[in-house]
């Protein structure tokens, strides 16, 4: 109990930070792919460049930040202390980074050895993480919707990793297995089950905390994570027994549950007591709006009569909305709260009692975050429109994504360097004259 | 006690809003009210609730000690924010306010999720009298 309240139980600063600092580089890499191979990338979800770019964003950026954040927040939100967080971070971090790069290379160059290497790195790294995090979290009783959400998200991550590894081996070995159905399930478990449920579990805590909104109502908050997993299980069962109608029910249920969560969050934000719209708030608004649009597309797609064939660009647009419009903004918005706070908290802990330390905006100020936010809005708008006119807009969209990713990396790195300067200044001040 | 946390949040939001709008007079007034309310809340906890908890459980160096330390941090942050407001440095004030808000929220989260339930559990029989005392302390001044 006391462990939950004390600073000493927080993992070392470097454990989460290393994930946060390397993640933005994968946004830059995805931008490079868009510049180099935009036509193929935007033309079909199955092109090698699309698969590579998707996994640069989902593994290299999203998963990477989420793992780093979990190492930090599991002790605070769930009272679940990870065993040896520094060692876990030191093992998982390189495995994720190299694994994401190997996978992108494997897709791009259709090279079986790279895919096998990716499978080995990601499989081992995530097995370590799931083992350690699972052991810590499943020992804690589910006393809040957040804790229940964290547990279910970890189960969904295991399903995502399992299905992903299987597909990598199929591709690398050239086995005769049809993958599209499985790939849809993999995407559903990864995006809705893992990323979506994790996002909700964290939002229950941070949305009221940062924006001073009312809390999420308890009953829907408890039900959202299990309802999401139930919908995914229905779709999974549907693929196994080959029942199209069941898949339809699963997908509709998933879309409705997610819509309910988005609507609830928007409603809370309307009732917020903090009127100042900061960069995080703007990022969340973009994320909520784009996800809403993507969910409506998913519903339309599901309800279309059999025989109507959608253009290949439809799914690509859906992907751009969910990833670039939805998850990236949510995550960047959170990074802009988490990183300055962790650095500031560390300074605070090192300072002499009663002596004020530099405020958070001295580490990372609002104008810098806002500038990067605007560059990201441009990147999102161009990526979305470029689906309709890849020949004209893929290159500008890719360049904009490179700028937004590099700017994010710069902002975060600058905050870390300023923290180091302040820390040194503080240490000199502590020495006797 | 939980409602008092929300009350302090409201006062904080009002002060930040005024400062953001550039209305320093209103911001000083609202932040003053916020600070008074928070200090009363701290005093209520430190003088009444925490000693009762420590008495009953024998845990003197436990959670209440961590909470006292965080109260100290927040007192320093509020002082720094007042200084910034007094000298008209709006940006500095908003920066301090941001740090203060997060410290305050995660502190409240610990109290509400861990310490208050422990207090309810440990002090169940004495709760009536204790709540009355806390209430009068929070309303005083």
Terminus-to-terminus distance of chain A: 41 Å
Succession of helices and strands of chain B: HHHHH
Using CB atoms under 8 Å apart, which protein chain pair has the greatest interface? A-B, 30 and 36 residues
Strand content of chain A: under 5%
Mean pLDDT of chain A: 91
Q: Helicity of chain B, in percent?
A: over 70%
User: What class do helices, strands and sheet pairing of chain A give?
Assistant: mainly alpha
- Work out the number of β strands of chain B: 0
Termini separation of chain B: 17 Å
Largest sheet of chain B: none
- Can you give the helix content of chain A as a percent range? over 70%
* Shape label of chain B: elongated
Radius of gyration of chain A from CA coordinates: 21 Å
Would you kindly provide a written description of the structure presented here, covering whatever features stand out?
- Chain A: The chain crosses the membrane at residues 20-42, 54-74, 86-109, 115-138, 150-175, 187-210, 222-239, 245-263, 283-304, 316-345, 399-417.
- The complex is a heterodimer of chains A (433) and B (141).
- Chain A has 433 residues and is mainly α.
- In chain A, 82% of the residues lie in helices and 0% in strands.
- Chain A has a domain at 1-140 and 333-420.
- Chain A has helices spanning 2-5, 14-22, 24-43, 48-78, 85-109, 112-137, 145-173, 180-211, 218-241, 244-270, 279-303, 312-350, 360-363, 366-386, 390-430.
- In chain A, helix 2 (14-22) runs antiparallel to helix 4, helix 12 (312-350) packs parallel to helix 15 and helix 14 packs antiparallel against helix 15.
- In chain A, 50% of the residues are buried.
- Chain B has one domain (2-139): Four Helix Bundle (Hemerythrin (Met), subunit A) (Up-down Bundle), CATH 1.20.120.
- In chain B, 87% of the residues lie in helices and 0% in strands.
- Chain B contains five helices and no strands.
- The mean pLDDT of chain B is 83.
- The chains are: A mainly alpha (433), B mainly alpha (141).
- Chains A and B meet through helix 1, helix 8, helix 12 and helix 13 of A and helix 1, helix 3 and helix 4 of B.
